UniProtKB/TrEMBL annotation:
The keyword Cell division does not apply. Gene3D superfamilies: Nucleotide-binding domain of ferredoxin-NADP reductase (FNR) module, Translation factors. The keyword Transmembrane applies. Residues 207-308 form the FAD-binding FR-type domain. This is Ferric reductase-like transmembrane domain-containing protein. Keywords: 2Fe-2S, FAD, Flavoprotein, Iron, Iron-sulfur, Membrane, Metal-binding, Oxidoreductase, Transmembrane, Transmembrane helix. CDD domains: FNR_like_3. SUPFAM superfamilies: Ferredoxin reductase-like, C-terminal NADP-linked domain (SSF52343), Riboflavin synthase domain-like (SSF63380). The lineage of its organism: Bacteria, Bacillati, Cyanobacteriota, Cyanophyceae, Oscillatoriophycideae. It is a multi-pass membrane protein.
């Protein structure tokens, strides 16, 4: 897939293309309207259904991790958009039959599953699948669904929703009777299911051609572990400092069990890569027990959270907890390159014993003359002389440059931390275009 060099042009292109595809049902009606006589609300209901179905079909492409699509925004933004726009599509698809029921009670007979025509049965099953998909996604943690079980069911429900929804549309055959209209929807279906085949079959096959082995697992403070990988039979992966990859351990990349983690090593060295992981869940709690020699596969690199995309006078890196991981990669890579631009790291933790990479930061502070490290400890020891409490407006005002222009601000951490830090930067008159954030919750 082609990739545009200018992120603003690329971002605008994909937004316009997305709008054109999702609104294509309405555009088709304007070009060649269907026979009249059904009234405004019936036609409006049908339009909502078609737009919602088009949105759902495009979700497959959004989640296929195509670099050209994700590059202008960052894949974390794309996946957040996927969550929100699915809820919009969900609302449109539910409103579609509700309007029909209010306009003509005869439509209620279609809910009689055993006597209704197949086109109506397809619609009912598709809607139930969509409801289950949304509910299990929004409340996965409350429902205590295992990640692998949820991901498998998520894919099955998505295919059922779109496939049966499309079968319903063709079964009604009111708007798709003309061959050219039917062909447009077939092409959209091929895009959707082709994206699924790519991410579930083709991409894992490509990953199998470039396997890795676990060299060692390095424990860090704060229940954090660094997984060091060596490429087997290939030159390894090159990445931009700050990016991440999806990791699959042992067996095969066709396994459902894959998780995104940030690189914490030099992006310019492909012969050894490191991913740093905090033990907070079923999978991450097992990292400390991974044995050297374990097979590993990487899908990446991904992400737009990197200073390599910008020209800037200096960097302000703001993180809490394991959010420091991409910052470590950035600092190590710039140190190896001999980059002398000023860097200010503001790193928040609950206690001094929780500070991951503490010794590494001391080493980097000595190696990079332009690096300033500010630790912010919520509950500091008695002899603590540094910053304490929270990263707020007053603290940032003391440590970010007086001249806000020309610097880039990179934030990574928990959702609440990011919200507070971003709000403080805005209050300090840091231009929004200079602020870049990486979110933890990609799944």
């Amino acid at each position: 897939m082609f990739q545009m060099k200018n992120p603003w042009v690329a971002g605008t292109f994909w937004i316009v293309l997305y709008l054109l595809v999702t609104l294509s049902p309405l555009l088709i009606l304007l070009i060649h309207p269907a026979p009249g006589g059904r009234g405004f609300w019936i036609e409006f209901s049908a339009a909502l259904g078609y737009v919602g179905l088009a949105m759902m079909m495009l979700q497959f492409a959004l989640t296929a991790r195509f670099d050209a699509i994700a590059a202008p925004y960052g894949i974390d933004i794309v996946l957040q958009y996927h969550r929100y726009i699915t809820q919009v599509a969900f609302a449109l698809i539910l409103i579609h039959p509700i309007i029909l029921f209010f306009q003509d009670a005869e439509y209620l007979r279609l809910l009689n599953f055993f006597e209704a025509p197949w086109r109506a049965r397809f619609a009912v099953i598709s809607t139930i699948s969509l409801i289950l998909l949304v509910v299990t996604s929004l409340w996965r943690e409350k429902l205590k669904l295992n990640y692998e079980v949820w991901r498998t069911s998520h894919g099955i429900l998505a295919v059922a929703t779109v496939g049966l929804g499309l079968a319903h549309a063709f079964g009604v055959n009111y708007y798709l009777a003309l061959p050219w209209k039917a062909m447009l929807w077939i092409l959209l279906a091929l895009l959707a299911f082709g994206s699924l085949i790519y991410v579930r079959l083709i991409k894992p096959w490509l990953m199998m051609q470039k396997p890795y082995r676990v060299e060692t697992v390095v424990p860090q403070r704060g229940d954090v572990y660094t997984l060091v990988l060596r490429p087997q039979g290939h030159e390894g992966i090159r990445f931009l400092p700050g990016q991440f990859a999806w990791l699959t351990l042992d067996r095969s990349p066709y396994r459902i069990q894959e998780h995104p983690f940030s690189f914490s090593s030099n992006g310019d060295r492909g012969d050894q890569v490191a991913l740093t992981i905090k033990a907070v869940g079923d999978f991450t709690n097992t990292i400390k027990n991974v044995q050297p020699g374990t097979k590993a596969f990487l899908d990446g690199p991904h992400g737009a959270f990197t200073p390599d995309r910008f020209d800037c006078a200096g960097l302000v890196l703001i993180a809490n907890g394991v959010g420091v991981t991409p910052m470590i990669s950035i600092m190590i890579t710039l140190a190896e390159r001999g980059d002398h631009r000023p860097i200010r790291l503001i790193y928040a933790n609950g206690s001094w014993d929780d500070v991951a990479f503490r010794e590494d930061l001391e080493y980097l502070n000595k190696r990079l003359d332009s690096l300033t490290v500010t630790h912010v400890i919520k509950e500091p020891p008695e002899d603590w002389a540094g910053e304490s409490g929270y990263v707020d407006k007053d603290l940032l005002a003391r440590h970010i440059p007086d001249n806000r222009e020309g610097w880039r601000y990179f934030l990574c951490g928990s959702p609440r931390f990011l919200d507070e830090a971003e709000k403080a930067l805005h209050e300090l008159k840091v231009p929004a275009k200079y602020i870049h954030m990486e979110h933890f919750n990609l799944v």
